[in-house]
Amino acid sequence: MLKWILMLVCAVTGEVAVADEEKAPALALEDPYTWTWAAMDNPVTLRSWAQERMESLKPESDGRLWSLAVAAFFRKARPEDYSSLQRENLEKALDIAAEHTLPPWALFDLKDAAYYFKLVDAHGQDGILPPDQDLERLRHQAELADSLKLPGRKAQASLEWGYALLDSGRESEAVKKIHEALRELNKAHGVQDLEIIKAKGLYADALVNLQSREKSRTIYRELEQFCQRKNLRMFCLAVHHAQAYLWMQERTPEAHEKAFAILQRSLAIAEELQDEHSIASIHNYLIRVCDAMGRYEDAEAYGKKAIEMFRRAKSRVWLGDTQRKLSFVYLNMKQPDKALDILNEARESFPADFAMDLAEISYQKAQAFQALRQHKKAYEALTAYAAFLKQNAQQSQSADIAQNLTQINLELEEEYSRSLTEAERQQEIQTQLERANQRNQEETLLLINIIWFVSGGLVLSGILGLLWIHQQNRRILRLNRHLRENILQRFLPPLVAEKVASGQAVLDEIPHEQNVTVLFGRLVGLEHAIEELGPRVTARLLESLMQAVTDVSLIHKGCLDKLHRGSFLILFGAPLPSSADEQVANAMAFAEAILERFAQIREDWPQVAGWQPGLAIGIHQGAALVGIFGGKRRADYTAIGQTVNLAARIEGEAQSNQILVSETVAQFLTSDRCHSLGEIRLKGITQLQTIFRVDLPLRARNAS
Asked: Residues 687, 629: one domain?
């Protein structure tokens, strides 16, 4: 589907001919083009001009023009502009519109503002709508524009709607919505060039979320040139912000420097416009950039300035977001107490409907508690975050959310172990031993019953009894083979299943710490194709991938730990110990082999427009707690610990058909194969990590 979007946007948003240094047209009530221009250059000017026109005109005698002035005011109104006085003006303008014929573009602004008031009254707080109601407003805008036959406004609303869906993790819906918007815009006539440019910007924003970064970067460069020629300063700010965000995705020192330089240019424009909200939002983003550059004092200074401005403007959501960003800075400055204080303030800032932000605060508080070694509190905070992810995963088809939930569950297991006191830990061990003893007693009783039953048969007939015993032995062998091949190996890694079946390991064995190499992999972009493929075909594709992963892991001495929705976790060096260099050699051999095998099996997969199936792989080595975790009814063989967390985060940075490894793994590889990506901040990992990209052998490159 993405392929068709690319084709459509090229047709819709090609180069727009613009004269150099074009001057802003004079604002006119009857000319909507001048409204759009002012909104993209300096919205303050548009609102001030509209306010002056409302005051100079009288609704009784100049009803139509006065209503147009009200519509112009709401074209680019901020939440704080929706005062009781403006609400009265809006209601009066709508009454006049019923008597006078207003142009559709003015009716759109008036009716959209009225619907916004309705949503704020029912769900908003301080003029801010929660994410689900923001989606509702965008849906209403698209329907309203369609009813008024305004294709440009409809496309803009639909694209914003699609972007908001992307932001909430509903990727398949988002791609479909963006596709529909661009297709309709391509067929429309009489659309302003400025509306096309705005649509192009929204499309580029969506592409960033869809991981099409190079295409986005090209579009942003075109948009920057356009807004500089037209002198559209506010629109230029938006483009700069998007460019900075895009550079930050690269997570290299050079990219961070570029993002910082872009935001400094934006800051100069915002100060020229004397727009305090824009200045504060740029300071907000500079927190993250300076934090990534290690300039913590600068990040703190920008954060404090932004907090002061957002408090003055009573922008609670922006205030909470700034406080959250500042907490990361305090964690990196080794000041977890300050991080907790600012996170508690952030919790008070966000309205209750902002569930995602409040859940993220719980996760950040867990990190602060971990730094303070308050593990019980860290466990409680992680539990709250995991509960939110579980609920969200049930409502969303996003593979990222499902993967994040798996990772958080691993962190929960580790934090639970840390939170136990020595007495509680001994009690846990005693409980496991009691379960094992109980199971042994049950097995002994069963064996006595079998012996009694067999003995009874021998009394009746010695020869028949011997034959019966022979048959039972054969049945036991078949049952043992069935348990090992059809049950144990389906629910435990094959190497572990063999040890359990042979009596070398028991399911209640206490986990132990050992050095392992952990490999995470995932199928990239599956969520974009699920809707078109359907559940049956998707299940068949995943089954073929998982079978390949299982086969290749056995060849290269890997212990297959987890398989879930196209993601997999493989351990090397467990349960059978091996040297560190042998682990890395086996992990790399597996990574290269699975990429080759995947290239073969995907040839038989159906084609989905915009989806190029690929695997992303991340590898790290270190100490982990390895063994069988669980209770009497359900147990898993796995590894937990920071080594596992770090491997998962590295895989999250990998792109399609790419292998990323930690510095620990890279030291076992030849320098000509490894290329440093520099120090990268990984989510949930306090220290910066040096990550390396591994070049594939020629055969693997050709396959991928």
From this structure: yes
